[in-house]
Amino acid sequence: MVQVVLNRLRHPDFPKSVCGVVYQGAERDIGCQFTFTCDGAMKRPVDGEAWDEAKKIAQRALGGFVDRAVGTATYYHADYVFPTWAPTLVKMAKVGPHVFYRMAGAEGAAAYLTGRYAGNELKLVRAVLRAGDKHTQKGKPATERESFKQADAYVWHPDGRLAAVPRVSRVELFLLRGVDRMRDILMENTERFANGLPANNALLWGARGMGKSSLVKAAHASINADRKPADQL
């Protein structure tokens, strides 16, 4: 978990201080990035032995220790839950009772972790934390319309961010065989949705590796191919 915090600090999309990362979203009753910051845990007495152990682990991590299994992970969850966001990320490893994930594509690579520590931990007052810790190293954000033109697709993250996927890995629709009926239903339904007409939720079922994701991505690309950028899905 310490490694996830430090990876987030180095990731361009997160605050540039340890406190900023840990307390991100702490002003909300739900949706905080680290549960203890918004579930009332900090009001309970501190376990002295656990606190001392936590400090040792933190010092070791700040000293350069890296768990290779966790790698560039920026998300994790306990093994007794399965968050809705988990399938949108790349699973790294299970360490103890926690499962770790990195972002998909280039955003999950080590080369992407270029952020620099901003410091001033002790000066981070609650007002700064509520603002999401503005110690980020980004330029003026693009407008929503501009940003959506920069990639084929976007991955939604639980903190409300949309991570760009510059190019979706896919195959052409005509290469998919044996799924004609499902292809036609999905294409018709998605075309209606793209045109602003009533459409249904689509359920694709089958064993892993049967091509469900390939069919969805191919259909999406096929429909976008003949549409103006402003009308694309």
What are the main properties of this structure?
7 helices, 2 domains, three-stranded antiparallel β-sheet, alpha+beta, two-stranded antiparallel sheet, 233 residues, elongated, single chain
Give an account of the 3D structure.
The chain is of the alpha+beta class. It folds into two domains: 2-130, no CATH class; 173-231, no CATH class. The chain is built from seven helices and five strands, in the order αααβββααββαα. It has helices at 2-10, 18-22, 48-62, 126-130, 144-147, 180-194, 212-225, and strands at 75-78, 90-95, 98-102, 153-156, 162-165. The protein has a three-stranded antiparallel sheet with strand order 1-3-2, with no helix packed on it. A two-stranded antiparallel sheet has the order 4-5. A hairpin with a 2-residue loop joins strand 2 and strand 3. Helix 6 crosses helix 7. The chain is elongated and about 65 Å long. The relative contact order is 0.13.
